[in-house]
Amino acid sequence: MSMSSSPPPAHVLLVSAPLQGHVNPLLVLGRRLASSGLLVTFSTVPHAGLKFAHGDGAAVAVGRGTLRFEHLQGGALWPPNDPRYCAPTAGGEMLLRHLEDAAPAALAGLLRRHSDAGRPVSCVVAAAFAPWAGRAVAAAGVPHAVLWTESCAVLSLFYHYFYSLADFPSNNPNKAAPVDAAAVPGLPPVATGDLPALIHAPENLIWRQALVADLRGLRDMASWVLVNTFHELERPAIDALRAHLPITPVGPLFEPENHGGDGDDCTAWLDAWPPRSVVFVAFGSLIKLSRDETAELAAGLAATGRPFLLVVRGDSNNQPELLPDDDGRCKVVEWCEQGRVLSHAAVGCFVTHCGWNSTTEALASGVPVVTFPAWADQPTNAKFLEDVYGVGVRLPRPMARDAVSRCVEEVMSGPEAAAMRARAREWKAAASAAVAAGGSSDRGVQGFVDAVVSLNGAGDD
């Protein structure tokens, strides 16, 4: 009697465009999938501007599974040291167009190599804004999911707009013009100025083209739409959008304990300050302030008299003379572990551009916010942080020092500050419960794991 060999373990390949804000949540998802017993391989297009805890070829044990790192390289892709990866040209347009042209062949080759090595890919999870990945995976006949890295509310707005399921105000100067609330089920009343920027962006903008391709893939090719959110945060939007898409909340994809080593320079500096005393200021990996904005921001923060930690990226064009002197009360850094900082007890306020990663990290850390949205989904996130989640105030444009200090004080010690802190603590508790064993997002992750194992046949005895 011959012994039949057991099938290889279920293998999930994670694929992302090489943008830090897309990579970070996908890596957290990868750790959660691996901890449930899957073999998980993470892949992106490597370059000097991306930060990873592990290098190409590394494999680390996570819970009952393994997380591997194997990047897309070679062929027509730029080499990892090519400066064009970090060039700000047209908001990343050159990079996105390059990936459209060169990444599909590299991904197809990676799928073949995995199969030849005896670890065929059971399912691919592609981060949003990488439609080239979905096309390559579909051509290879491999089931795939999309990790939507923005809010479910934003996804619903996009879906209803681009599939003409609702009437939206035209792109006019009246930012207060209302969107018909009844037309987008599950959303509160929003105005034109609250809409994500890509709704009214020019049709030839590469980000808009990628979004439209993503939406088509979500509807026509993806078997799962995993969303970096949790049911308690966006229940109405999630429940309503499930009539159109296979939505599964798996967030918040935020694990500050996995962000680096035991400590760093920022942590040591924060340790010296009392609880809820420090203002933390960071605007993400893409937004750049002008010289005037930097000067007004620095003056406004200094006027509060409060300690503050300010992140000014190393690729910024701002001059050192625009920044405050490091007198012990302020600290200016080029980069920090944002999750670690937000989770520190000394942080009492977060001045943020309202990217969705920053939004969910603030909520999961229980930190009230001052919002300063710029583009993309940030105006929508700011609207929800202020009016739906009740944990922040809006810093108006253009940035002015008096407004900076006024908004910070409103969040730190104003008449509504205690109520904001209380609501922030409630969201922190809800986020923790969602990802805990048996929580809403934990059940979503486990349901996806079970489906992948079933596809693979690895669950058979």
From TrEMBL:
Pfam families: UDPGT (PF00201). InterPro entries: UDP_glucos_trans, UDP_glycos_trans_CS. The keyword Transmembrane does not apply. This is Glycosyltransferase. Belongs to the UDP-glycosyltransferase family. Coiled coil: none annotated. GO terms for molecular function: glycosyltransferase activity. The keyword Transferase applies. Its EC number is 2.4.1.-. Keywords: Glycosyltransferase, Transferase. It is an enzyme of class 2 (transferase). Transmembrane segments: none annotated.
